[in-house]
């Protein structure tokens, strides 16, 4: 990361992210074109199927970012065990991935609810996917709340990392139990959570959308990471200033 | 005589504030050291850093032979820390609490009675919940909890606070006994006159480091 | 390690015995929640009977969270956390000791709540073995998760609201499994009650393993 001093950097952009950003914009534009215009409407669901081009990739990002947060947290814990100040870049990555993840979890829920309104007639069904996603969403919120608490930064990072680790184990358990529960208790009268069979042009559009959304998410994570880094640099400079001002003060006069 | 505490240019940060700013100090076994200084000088932070509760940012810090940058939890079982607070379970009876602390420190539970007698808590209070004691009595129970663990290094933050004259003299006696049997004592105090005769060495702190040391070496 | 664990558990239980918070405040409150459910559901007896399994666990969740909160309030009061950290007792023993004490307290709470649903909701117990095993599994899960997440939010200023926020999503599968297992045990529906009970044990095991490893780490202040 080529970020210099806080006083000189006004933006977190570098040549790589500028290219990535343009790519993301173009990819999204093409995704809109493909999703809204080019790909056909579904036989059963009509135009509503277009919602899935955003909904499905969003779930992927929500869970993918979550995995990224958890893995980063493990690496952070291992690195910081050996030396207290090592491994902070993993902690930053965990935090930025979580923020992007929570946004996409939210998008998943909203698009899912809208899709449900059109296809099922109701905003909510207690199907496995939506239920697990809302629990993931709340877990994310808790994690972000923990990261924001007024406390020693190292303590905060460590607790958040442990939480991410536990959640990494817990979320699959939640997913499995909710899934099993809904399979057992599906009401026969309502075809709940029936996703359409995706083939042909729709399949390729979906695949492409996944790539496009991933590029956007990557761009977001990189920038968020850099902003966190800048915040830390600023805090470090403030600490250095405090230390030197204490050192040059006269005996005990604060 | 082994070195119990050895700090060289220690910088320690708590939260985002540098509480120790390059502290140099050496304390040998058996010494009784008085820490003085204004509020905010770093006395409490120094005691807590010795106890391993605050991590060392830079510099070398060695307590009871353990390198605090490698494992700051290691010396804790040999240390008795008394902070501003008393670390008491308010709902327990006096004796129950001290018994727990004794067992936690690996001491024999019968040491409890001896410790309580030593600090001067009358026997009729032993079965009283700690929450209903006066501040001075609570402080004495806290000291008894320390006594019962027989620590090698005593770190005391304003131990005489809330104690009456007689109890203060008694505490000085206890500390004197501990020192005589090989323990090292570092205590911070605003007392006037400073725990007189008790301390063999007076250190004045300010701005997170040592300003004056009557027994510098 | 066993001796240290029992020492810590005994201390926690003795504190509770003297203060009588669990007995005097939390349990009546949780029992009251069962009554409140009846108001909310318009005293519809058939509905209450159907939902008894789930409502029981919601009440346990509510009371349990309060008990976990209390368990750590005792430790953060008067700087007791520092004494914990300075203690010669190993961190895993502290973890297990507190979990054991919570197990006893939540267990007693559940006993009362069990009587509550028996009397207020007129349930019939069809499978005693499943009921007891499921209740035990759920209690272990609650206790272990409670200590782990309790220490994570301990000593932090907004912990009273943070603890439930962190704890509840983690406990939802326990709630889910417990409710389904109870429904089978109460004859409400034929279900895979024993599988649900095993799931709760799995959750408990996972959290115990993590707790044993991470507790010491989490205790540190900085």
CATH homolog superfamily of chain B? P-loop containing nucleotide triphosphate hydrolases
Distance between the termini of chain B: 14 Å
With strands numbered from the N-terminus, the spatial order across the biggest sheet of chain B is 6-7-8-3-9-10
Label the structural class of chain B: alpha/beta
The residue-averaged pLDDT of chain C reads 90
- Percent helix range of chain C: over 70%
Cα-atom radius of gyration of chain C:
18 Å
Structural class of chain C: mainly alpha
Residue fraction in strands of chain B: 25-35%
Count of distinct structural domains of chain B: 1
Number of helices of chain C: 8
Largest sheet composition of chain B: 6 strands, mixed
Helix content of chain B: 25-40%
Enumerate the spans of chain B where pLDDT stays under 50 for 5 or more consecutive residues: none
Overview of the molecule:
The complex is a heterotrimer of chains A (about 250), B (about 220) and C (about 220). Chain A has about 250 residues and is mainly alpha-helical. Chain A has a domain at about 50-180 and about 205-235. Chain A has helices at about 15-40, 50-80, 90-120, 130-145, 155-185, 200-250. In chain A, helix 2 runs antiparallel to helix 3 (about 90-120). Helices cover about 25% and strands about 30% of the residues of chain B. The two termini of chain C are about 25 Å apart. Chain C is globular, with a radius of gyration of 18 Å.
């Amino acid at each position: 990361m080529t970020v210099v001093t806080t006083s000189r950097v006004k933006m977190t952009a570098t040549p790589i992210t500028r290219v990535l950003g343009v790519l993301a914009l173009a990819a999204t534009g093409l995704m809109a074109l493909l999703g809204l215009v080019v790909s056909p409407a579904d036989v059963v669901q009509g135009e509503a199927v277009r919602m899935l081009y955003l909904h499905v990739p969003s779930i992927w990002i929500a869970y993918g970012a979550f995995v990224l947060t958890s893995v980063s947290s493990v690496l952070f814990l291992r690195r910081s065990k050996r030396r207290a100040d090592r491994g902070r870049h993993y902690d930053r990555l965990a935090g930025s991935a979580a923020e992007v993840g929570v946004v996409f979890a939210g998008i998943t829920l909203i698009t899912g609810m809208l899709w449900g309104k059109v296809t099922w007639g109701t905003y909510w069904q207690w199907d496995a996917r939506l239920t697990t996603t809302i629990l993931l969403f709340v877990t994310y919120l808790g994690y972000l709340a923990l990261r924001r608490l007024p406390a020693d930064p190292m303590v905060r990072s460590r607790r958040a990392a442990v939480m991410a680790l536990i959640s990494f184990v817990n979320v699959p358990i939640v997913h499995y139990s909710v899934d099993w529960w809904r399979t057992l208790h599906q009401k026969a009268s309502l075809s709940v959570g029936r996703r359409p069979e995706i083939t042909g042009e729709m399949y390729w559009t979906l695949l492409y959308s996944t790539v496009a959304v991933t590029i956007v998410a990557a761009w977001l994570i990189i920038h968020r990471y850099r902003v966190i880094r800048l915040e830390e640099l600023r805090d470090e400079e403030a600490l250095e200033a405090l230390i030197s001002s204490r050192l040059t003060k006269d005996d005990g006069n604060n | 005589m082994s070195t119990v505490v050895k700090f060289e240019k220690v910088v320690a940060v708590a939260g985002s504030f540098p509480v120790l700013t390059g502290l140099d100090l050496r304390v040998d076994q058996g010494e009784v050291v008085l820490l003085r200084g204004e509020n905010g000088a770093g006395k409490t932070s120094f005691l807590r850093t010795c106890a391993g509760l605050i991590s060392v940012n830079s510099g070398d810090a060695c307590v009871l032979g353990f390198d605090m940058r490698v494992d700051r939890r290691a010396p804790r079982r040999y240390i008795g820390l008394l902070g501003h607070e008393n670390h008491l379970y308010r709902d327990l009876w006096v004796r129950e609490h001290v018994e727990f602390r004794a067992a936690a420190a690996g001491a024999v539970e019968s040491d409890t009675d001896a410790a309580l007698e030593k600090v001067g808590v009358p026997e009729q209070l032993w079965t009283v919940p700690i929450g209903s004691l006066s501040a001075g009595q609570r402080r004495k129970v806290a000291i008894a909890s320390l006594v019962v663990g027989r620590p090698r290094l005593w770190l005391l933050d304003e131990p005489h606070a809330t104690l009456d004259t007689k109890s203060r003299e008694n505490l000085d006696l206890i500390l004197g006994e501990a020192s005589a049997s090989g323990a090292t004592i570092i205590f911070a105090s605003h007392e006037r006159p400073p725990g007189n005769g008790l301390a063999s060495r007076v250190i004045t702190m300010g701005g997170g480091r040592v300003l004056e040391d009557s027994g510098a070496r | 390690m066993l001796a240290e664990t029992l020492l810590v558990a005994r201390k926690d239980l003795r504190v509770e015995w003297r203060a009588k918070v669990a007995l005097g405040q939390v349990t009546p409150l949780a029992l009251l929640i069962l009554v409140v459910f009846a108001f909310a559901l318009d005293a519809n007896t058939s509905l209450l009977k159907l939902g008894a399994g789930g409502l029981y666990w919601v009440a346990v969740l509510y009371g349990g969270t309060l008990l976990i909160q209390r368990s750590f309030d005792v430790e953060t009061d008067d700087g007791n956390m520092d004494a914990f950290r300075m203690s010669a007792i190993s961190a895993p023993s502290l973890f297990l000791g507190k979990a054991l004490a919570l197990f006893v307290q939540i267990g007693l709470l559940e006993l009362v709540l069990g009587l509550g649903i028996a009397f207020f909701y007129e349930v019939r117990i069809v499978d005693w073995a499943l009921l007891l095993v499921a209740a035990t599994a759920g209690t272990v899960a609650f206790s272990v998760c409670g200590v782990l997440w309790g220490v994570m939010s301990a000593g932090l200023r907004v912990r009273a609201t943070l603890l439930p926020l962190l704890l509840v999503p983690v406990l939802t599968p326990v709630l889910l499994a417990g409710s389904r297992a109870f429904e089978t045990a109460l004859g409400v529906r034929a279900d895979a009650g024993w599988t649900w009970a095993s799931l709760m044990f799995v959750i408990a095991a996972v959290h115990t393993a993590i707790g044993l490893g991470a507790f010491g780490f989490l205790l540190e202040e900085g």
